[in-house]
Amino acid sequence: MTLKEIVERARQGAKVPIVERDVERALSALLASEDIWRVIDLSQVPVMALVQVLSALKDTGLLDWDGGRLVLTPDGKRFAEAEELGPRLELKCPHCGGRGTTLGPVEEIVEKFKDIAANRPEAIQDYDQGYVTEETTLHRVAFMWSRGDLYGKELIVLGDDDLVSIAAALTRTPKKVVVLEIDQRLVDFIRDVAAKEGLPIEVVQHDLREPLPANIRGKFDTFFCDPTESLRGFVMFAERGIAALRGPGAAGYLGLTHCEASYDKWREIQRFLLDAGAVIAELRDAFHDYVNWPYIDHMRSWPHLPVHRIPGRDEIWYRSALIRVEVVKGPAIEERRYEGDIFADEEAATT
Amino acid sequence: MTLKEIVERARQGAKVPIVERDVERALSALLASEDIWRVIDLSQVPVMALVQVLSALKDTGLLDWDGGRLVLTPDGKRFAEAEELGPRLELKCPHCGGRGTTLGPVEEIVEKFKDIAANRPEAIQDYDQGYVTEETTLHRVAFMWSRGDLYGKELIVLGDDDLVSIAAALTRTPKKVVVLEIDQRLVDFIRDVAAKEGLPIEVVQHDLREPLPANIRGKFDTFFCDPTESLRGFVMFAERGIAALRGPGAAGYLGLTHCEASYDKWREIQRFLLDAGAVIAELRDAFHDYVNWPYIDHMRSWPHLPVHRIPGRDEIWYRSALIRVEVVKGPAIEERRYEGDIFADEEAATT
């Protein structure tokens, strides 16, 4: 029995779209609850698609509901395990009616990650670096886990001064983590940490202006990147990320600020994402907090500021939205080669 | 001095887009802080646009920064008051690193609103009704306030079984609230409450399949709606909402579920929103919790469910995302007349 066979069976007589990821979502929900309403809620699959998936799981002997509970059979549990599916985690903040997110099981790696990050390379302007707080990286990883994009998945990180690869791998849940990074200091740092901690991270030194290496293209379940914010630079990152994904149901994460991007630019970016075959599944503004970088008085907008006070390292003012996209069709990406400066446009403020 | 004059001055020599709403956002930030980094953070205006706005405010005598603090002059404060701008509220949940939202000043109306809502008309299937919890309506209103879409603004609510108009008006911050509602019971209920509480709510009985009344079109700062979820019905609601907005900088809110909408449908909806001239400014999944409706065992998906247990009234399983859009261009809407059933498509589960 394969996911593909189950989805084909679920599609028989169905009048609504059903993809393999819907079967994964249903199984993750069934690993977390046996109650029909909780399973509907947790799965985030349209009800008229979910009922088809549940029937297909029953017909194939993976699920039973004779006692009024939805119970995975021993075969069903083995199947979910073989597919490396974990129970759906909600990670809803209990203090704000579930509108915020919590770290959940990621709490366990907080100390370890902070110890490792204490020795990270400092941000430099050459690559438009500027990293998020450690707390932010951990929340990001928890968010990915809660959305089913981490556990048992293959993750690619495009540029990793935030050390997402390390936090993700420390949870011991992803199947594989690959980093494409241009900065030799970060390549060395992440490789050293991975070797020392026994983490399944592969670091490839790569200039993202070049198309993806052939063995990377179309191979991943999830990408993460925090792009430079010129329109051209952002689209370049998004192109590489989406091109690395397997296809429908695969997901990507990107950061986007107000500081360096008008809503005009946001709209252009969103149009690109839709045209590439993706849907905007979530967009949480100000999810990411950034540590102030040492070159702040050399950034492009500095001479234009009315007041010239250097903020404290942890005096957060630069934030970005977390955008989660999911491939619905294709993806349709024509990978191009980029030349020259990808950082500058008129709205750029920090490079 | 007008907003228009300030924005024209700010645009002189600017190489980035600047709209009137950016001036409003800057002033709201300046009402909340005198520190440059907090003002950048709170304003959510691109830095290279913000510096132009700050200069224009200084040149026109509304702002001063000689002491290293950004201080609105008495003229500046009077101007902000005349424009009915309030200080930017963040309303970040302190327990989840600010990733969730709090009620903030909306706390003060919780009891009153719950008392009023206790006597609301029950949800009926005729109009695909099903209302959110009172807590959800209050969080929604707080969210709108924090995004600058409530205080001093003119708000239109398209279909209001959630009683958003009442919660919004109880905050005593919007300039005007208009409700378009088809259900006579809700029209009467909201009118009665408004009269009794002295709230600035105008209720117009209207079938949204018809284009907006002429005196409504292009007149509002903010719309709210929780559309029916057939693609056709959703687009109809979004068309009416966007057509009611003044233009660039005006904002709209819509709810969208997974239960009745696949990511294919989400993507179609997002394409419509972008084409209409809007940007997706925020998309917070599962922000809205729904109270179970009395016709649950008559809903379309009921016979297809594997288990037929009626959930408790407050056993939440149906949720929707909160989508905030903001007009960037236009808006470009061709308002059409709709005929017949707007509720049904293959993914519909509740009607």
Describe the structure.
The structure is a homodimer of 351-residue chains. Helices cover 34% and strands 15% of the residues of chain A. The first copy, chain A, is of the alpha/beta class and 351 residues long. Chain A folds into two domains: 3-82, Arc Repressor Mutant, subunit A (Orthogonal Bundle); 104-327, Vaccinia Virus protein VP39 (Rossmann fold). In chain A, the strands form two sheets. Chain A has a seven-stranded mixed β-sheet, sandwiched between helices. Chain A has a two-stranded antiparallel ribbon with strand order 1-2. In chain A, strand 1 and strand 2 form a beta hairpin. The mean pLDDT of chain A is 95. Chains A and B meet through helix 3, helix 4, helix 7, helix 11 and strand 8 of A and helix 3, helix 4, helix 7, helix 11 and strand 8 of B.
Write the layout of secondary structure elements.
The structure is a homodimer of 351-residue chains.
Chain A: H1 3-11, H2 20-32, H3 36-43, H4 47-59, E1 63-64, E2 71-72, H5 74-82, H6 110-117, H7 134-146, E3 154-158, H8 164-170, E4 176-181, H9 184-197, E5 201-205, E6 222-225, H10 231-243, E7 251-256, H11 263-275, E8 278-289, E9 319-327
Parallel strand pairs in A: 3-4, 3-6, 4-5, 6-7
Antiparallel strand pairs in A: 1-2, 7-9, 8-9
